[in-house]
Each structure stands twice: as structure tokens, then as C-alpha cells.
Design brief:
mainly alpha, 2 strands
Length: about 160
């Protein structure tokens, strides 16, 4: 996962370079992504990264909704993304295999109840499972776009 965090830090500037090629209107328009626009989707990915790293570390990182807009412009979002990538790299570098395989108790955003997410009745969702899923979903969300959005984000 240390390698994947470095790959993430390598690829994210390229995604943001693609987003910067879009007009402001295209960047904010509904691109038929899960969170609508490229802007909202990039904010969502950052929010989920902060949410899960906070859960793993037992910290409140300020995420209150999966659709939370953390930064209203691409430049500040991009700078925050670079910082978050460094944060994730440092976290992965200090985690042991046991840390990555441990069950992660957490509270669902919409609920006051504490939970331990399970993928099925026998398997707990580990941080390692989340990382693999998050990177896969991030690429699917961004590269599932079509037209000008896809062309701008392709590298």
C-alpha cells in the first residue's frame, strides 16, 4: 500500500492537469459522474480519503457528508490534494501489515451508532480493503466520464 500511495500521488497531478484543461463551465457541469461534476467528484474523493484516514487514526477530520465541498476552486483543491497525498503516504509508510488487516470500527456519517463495517458475515472491512476499493472507484468515477471531460482527463 505504500507503493499504491506513491502511485496515487503521482497520478493525481495528472488528473488535476486534465481538469485544468476544462473550461470553468465544463468543470462544474454535470458530467454524469456519481457526484455530478468533475469539481464535485474531486471534492468527494478528497472527502472520502479524509474520512477513512480519520477513521483509521481515530480522528475527526471534519467530514460531515460524502458530497461535502471542501474547496470551491480547482487551485485550492489541487493544493489540498497534494497535501492529502503526502498525508496518506506518511500514514502508509508507518502502518504495519497487522494495521492494514485490522478491522476498522467507525460511525456512519448519517448515524449516531458505532459500527464495524463488514463485507460479508465473516470478513471485516480493513483499511487495506478500503484503499484497494477507493483507488479502483476513483479511477472508475473519473475515467467513466465521456466527451470533453474524458478527453481532458486522459493522459
Amino acid at each position: 500500500f505504500s507503493f499504491l500511495s506513491r502511485y496515487n500521488a503521482w497520478v493525481n497531478p495528472r488528473i488535476y492537469d486534465g481538469a485544468a484543461k476544462l473550461s470553468e463551465a465544463a468543470y462544474r457541469a454535470d458530467a454524469r459522474l456519481f457526484f455530478g461534476s468533475v469539481h464535485a467528484t474531486l471534492n468527494h474523493i478528497m472527502a472520502v480519503d479524509r474520512l477513512w484516514t480519520g477513521r483509521v487514526e481515530g480522528k475527526d477530520r471534519g467530514i460531515r457528508a460524502l458530497s461535502q465541498i471542501l474547496h470551491d476552486d480547482l487551485a485550492s483543491l489541487r493544493a489540498a490534494r497534494a497535501g492529502e497525498d503526502g498525508y496518506i503516504q506518511a500514514l502508509m509508510d508507518r502502518f504495519t501489515q497487522a494495521d492494514l488487516e485490522a478491522c476498522v470500527p467507525y460511525r456512519i456519517i448519517r448515524s449516531r451508532r458505532n459500527r464495524t463495517h463488514t463485507l460479508n458475515s465473516d470478513t471485516c472491512s480493513s483499511f487495506g480493503n478500503w484503499l484497494e476499493m477507493a483507488w479502483t472507484m476513483s479511477f472508475g468515477l473519473l475515467f467513466g466520464a465521456t466527451g470533453a471531460v474524458f478527453d481532458a482527463l486522459s493522459f
